[in-house]
Specification:
Helices cover 42% and strands 15% of the residues. It is α+β, with helices and mostly antiparallel strands. It is globular.
Length: 358
């Protein structure tokens, strides 16, 4: 009997220890509870919300709140519309434009991108340029905030995109936030000359967020069938009942991962190894006629509302895809927009302490 009591006490201590650990993980001890709850409830991105609040319907609340805030944004933002692209983005969620740069500028961009991505990783790292290599891909990322550290070639490449007014106009229309000289630029080269294409998280159907976000892809070579062209589900950027239910189901799964691994990083790693949406669920949500493969010649730019489902295509053997990716994520965090921010400051007289910019 005594042994059973001892074992029970040990088990009880172990459970209590885990609960305390989870509590400490959930709340940053430097924050007040109200601040921590607000930060957890509204922080982004939504597909990796790893908290027990998922089981209470946090993701449903976030979806509904996003709809309200989006309506508020649309009513107060005087966005520039252009029928050439605004109608396509609103109805389909993407827009393609060929011959985007003048021939002279396009030639310079392609030469600069080819020269930069061929440089040794150490030289790039010295300029605070982020490099990611795999067997089939090389990616070189220029961050807007590190502009002053870059070489003359890097600055020139960024300036060519920064000064293209249409890029800022379209990004502002999608996100409802000004992006002049404030977006990141990534050179990406994927080829299957020596290795077959390998699956990664970008080759699975996924949606980046339920809040406004966008990317643009500038084609440095022709994107044809078999060259891994960008694929998009037209109209999937709309937040409807089916999407809200999907988001809730996924948040429950992420909640289980958080509990199982007692923390965020391991759970994130496990989540990223799995397809975000199963083939069966994907087919039940979307009709085949809505799947679009964005094939186009070089010097074409594709703008994508990344609330919608998308993926990269698979490359055939002996093929190369060469492009520049532009990332537009608002620094006005969607779920933490002005109404709640102002109300909290009015009531409690202080900023939310640990909120980080995206």
């Amino acid at each position: 009997m005594e042994q059973c009591c001892i074992k029970f006490e040990r088990f009880d201590k172990k459970i209590k220890g885990k609960l305390i650990y989870m509590f400490k993980k959930f709340f940053n001890q430097t924050e007040r509870i109200d601040t921590a709850l607000l930060r957890r409830a509204f922080s982004t991105p939504p597909h990796f919300v790893l908290t027990p609040l998922n089981f209470l319907g946090l993701q449903i609340f976030r979806c509904l709140f996003e709809l309200v805030i989006d309506g508020y944004r649309n009513s107060r933002w005087l966005v520039k519309k252009n029928k050439k692209w605004s109608n396509s983005i609103e109805r389909k969620g993407y827009f393609l434009q060929s011959n985007f740069f003048e021939e002279k500028d396009f030639g310079e961009i392609k030469a600069l991108a080819g020269s930069i991505i061929s440089q040794p990783a150490k030289e790039l790292a010295a300029q605070k340029i982020l490099v990611a290599n795999t067997d089939v891909a090389k990616r070189v990322l220029f961050k807007a905030e590190n502009y002053d550290n870059y070489s003359k070639a890097g600055k020139r490449l960024m300036d060519l995109f920064f000064e293209k007014k249409e890029i800022n106009d379209i990004a502002t229309f999608i996100i409802r936030s000004e992006f002049y000289r404030r977006f990141d630029i990534e050179i990406e080269r994927i080829n299957t000359f020596s290795h077959p294409d390998e699956y990664d998280h970008n080759s699975h159907w996924h949606a980046d967020r339920i809040s406004r976000c966008a990317k643009a892809f500038f084609y440095l070579n022709d994107h044809n069938e078999g060259s891994g062209s960008y694929q998009y589900v037209a109209g999937s950027n709309k937040l409807n009942t089916r999407r809200v239910f999907y988001e809730f189901k996924r948040s429950i799964w992420l909640g289980f991962l958080w509990i199982r691994y007692l923390g965020k990083q391991r759970a994130l790693n496990v989540a990223s190894e799995h397809e975000e949406i199963s083939t069966a669920e994907f087919q039940s949500m979307f009709e085949k006629k809505h799947l679009v493969e964005c094939m186009a010649p070089e010097n074409t730019i594709l703008f994508s509302d990344n609330r919608g489902f998308h993926r990269r295509g698979v490359l055939d053997n002996g093929v190369e895809r060469f492009q520049i990716n532009l990332t537009f994520y608002s620094d006005r965090i969607s779920f933490f927009w002005h109404p709640i921010w102002k109300m909290h400051r009015m009531l409690f007289g202080r900023h939310l302490s640990s909120q980080k910019k995206l």
